[in-house]
């Protein structure tokens, strides 16, 4: 993820994150997440891969305020590019969408959180939440999707 890209292209639900390389190793008592590009056998783009995220965010559509406990959100699988573009035509090519449930939703304040997938007992970072789509359908219900920045280009 290029730091320069944020300033060249601006913030459009992407490029609003940073992945840092630490000068020191992470202590052994802290469990770290695996990056998919470090293991060539992992296909983070598998359309059947079930993903999840975590957050404390509020959901203004349902008039919910910030919660006091960390929520685990089951996001399911990636939407197809075609379906994602139907609800987010301005979506950039380095992002993907996931389906959200009406009772679980990434909310205001969850941007920057990781999208994870468990593969062979290890947790991998599949992407980073860039934002949720605030669009409503004809019955004024939220359309189920989440836009995520793909981290494959690290």
UniProtKB/TrEMBL annotation:
Pfam entry (one): Trypsin
Cited InterPro entries: Peptidase_S1_PA, Peptidase_S1_PA_chymotrypsin, Trypsin_dom
SUPFAM superfamilies on file: Trypsin-like serine proteases
Domain Peptidase S1 span(s) in chain numbering: 14-143
Protein name stated in the entry: Peptidase S1 domain-containing protein
GO biological process, one term: proteolysis
GO molecular function ontology, one term from the record: serine-type endopeptidase activity
């Amino acid at each position: 993820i290029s730091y320069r890209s944020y300033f060249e292209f601006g913030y459009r639900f992407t490029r609003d994150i940073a992945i840092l390389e630490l000068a020191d190793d992470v202590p052994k008592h802290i469990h770290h997440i695996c990056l998919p590009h470090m293991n060539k056998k992992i296909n983070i783009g598998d359309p059947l891969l079930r993903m999840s995220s975590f957050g404390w965010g509020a959901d203004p559509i349902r008039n919910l305020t910030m919660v006091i406990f960390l929520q685990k959100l089951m996001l399911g699988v990636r939407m197809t590019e075609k379906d994602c573009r139907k609800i987010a035509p301005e979506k950039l090519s380095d992002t993907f969408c996931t389906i959200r449930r009406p009772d679980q939703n990434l909310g205001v304040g969850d941007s920057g959180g990781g999208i994870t997938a468990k593969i062979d007992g290890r947790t991998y970072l599949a992407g980073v939440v860039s934002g949720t789509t605030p669009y409503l359908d004809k019955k004024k219900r939220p359309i189920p999707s989440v836009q995520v920045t793909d981290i494959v280009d690290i």
